[in-house]
Amino acid sequence: MNSHEHNEVDLEDGKAGKSVEKPIHGKIPNQTLLSGLAYCISSCCMILVNKFVLSSYNFNAGISLMLYQNFISVIIVAILKLVGLISTEPLTWRLLKVWFPVNVIFVGMLITSMFSLKYINVAMVTVLKNVTNVITAVGEMYIFNKHHDSRVWSALFLMIISAVSGGITDLSFHAVGYAWQIANCFLTASYSLTLRKIMDTAKQVTTSGNLNEFSMVLLNNTLSLPLGLILVVAFNEVDYLYKTPLLRLPVFWCVVTLSGFMGLAISFSSMWFLHQTGATTYSLVGSLNKIPLSIAGIVLFHVPTSLQNSASIFFGLLAGVFFARAKMREKS
Predict the structure, then answer these.
(1) What's the CA gap between 292 and 310, in Å, rounded?
(2) How far apart are CA 72 and CA 217, in angstroms?
(3) What distance in Å separates the CA atoms of residue 208 and residue 151, rounded to the nearest whole number?
(4) For 184, which of 1, 131, 135, 146 is 20 to 30 Å away at the CA?
(5) Cα(266)–Cα(284) distance, rounded to whole angstroms?
(6) In terms of DSSP bridges, do strands 9-10 and 15-16 run parallel, antiparallel, or are they unpaired?
(7) Could you give the CA distance from residue 102 to residue 106 in angstroms, rounded to a whole number?
(8) Whole-number Å distance between alpha carbons of 285 and 28
(9) Measured on CA atoms in the order 202, 111, 72, 2, is the torsion positive or negative?
(10) Closest residue by Cα to residue 159 from 317, 330, 332
(11) What are phi and psi of 267, to 5 degrees?
(12) How many of the other CB atoms lie within 10 Å of CB of 79?
């Protein structure tokens, strides 16, 4: 899952971040620590569980997995709204029409992420996802006429170097997986840039004139269901689901259901952590969180690696931290 600076999104959950860095003073220290731990643990677990389902179980229906996870999110958010714990905007026809183009990119982003994670180890996925920041920065420059300082561009250059060197030294290199990951980087950046343009229009067609994070989670996941069903048929996953013995294993259902809960947990813990700290701290913690995630991915899945590849991965992770710090300084 990607963590970006303010005005961007926790992209693979469709949740927008707030643009104001809140002072930590006055917050309950335990709340800040707990929210940070919840965000780090849920984001790590989501990727690791998905990798486990796709690779260890050799589950060849990534679109169906995405569809099931999003269905769980819709059910849980609807229940929380029904009991009055959260509030969401009504999903009117006008809002759905405005949001549909963004959702198409959102679904493509999730699917390509699933496909790439099946073939590429977790550590390389985290490094390659840094390329998204490069594409987003270039898009900001041309679309929004936003200019970044030299420290940001230096960090982005380091990300490119680490991604290229990591790919060259990857002992488990898989061309198909890398192709899906490159597509994912472009779709993730497109989602971020498109969301900014659509957000204001979407707010104008809501009942309250606002669109909170819970509404975005419900909107994205609800719209993804019919689109996901079409893609399941188009990619002929129905035949695979009918034949695979995995769906007759209760343990497998427990694991994929857990992945659905983890996806929603990222959304809620992200909002909680942002409320306790702010967007820049959130971004920096997200970058630092990739380090234990990469190590866990290598150890848990017994990824063959070399000194050169490990150095490239570590270099890429540090470049991500450097990028987050450069963005913090740029904003200040």
Answers:
(1) 13
(2) 12
(3) 40
(4) 146
(5) 16
(6) antiparallel
(7) 6
(8) 18
(9) negative
(10) 317
(11) -60, -50
(12) 11
User: Quick count: other Cβ atoms within 10 Å of Cβ 35?
Assistant: 23
Structure tokens at 40: 């780090």
Separation CA 90–CA 150 (nearest Å): 44
Alpha-helical (H) ranges within 52-168 are 62-82, 93-119, 122-128, 131-143, 150-168
Pairwise CA distance, residues 133 & 139, whole Å: 10
* Residue, of 128 and 29, whose pLDDT is higher: 128
Q: How far apart are the C-alpha atoms of 298 and 304, rounded to whole Å?
A: 8
What H or E segment, with its residue span, contains residue 16? strand 15-16
Q: Read off the pLDDT of residues 175-230 as tens digits, 9 standing for 90 and up.
A: 999 999 999 999 999 998 888 788 888 888 888 888 887 888 899 999 999 999 99
Phi, psi angles (nearest 5°) of residue 17: -95, 155
**Dihedral of CA 8/71/125/305: which sign?**
positive
Distance of CA 173 to the CA centre of its chain: 22
pLDDT in tens, 247-264: 999 999 999 999 999 988
167 and 309 in contact (C-beta within 8 Å)? no
In whole angstroms, give the CA distance from residue 16 to residue 9.
Answer: 4
- Quick one: 42 exposed, middle or buried, by C-beta within 10 A (0-12, 13-18, 19+)? buried
Give the Cβ contact number of residue 142 at 10 Å: 9
- Which position has the token pair 């990727």? 47
SS3 244: coil
State how far the Cα of 317 lies from the Cα of 65, in Å rounded to an integer: 28
SS3 266: helix
Helices (H), the chain: 29-51, 62-82, 93-119, 122-128, 131-143, 150-168, 175-204, 213-234, 237-243, 250-276, 279-300, 307-331
CA 163 – CA 166 distance, rounded (Å): 5
Tokens linked to 253 = 């259902």
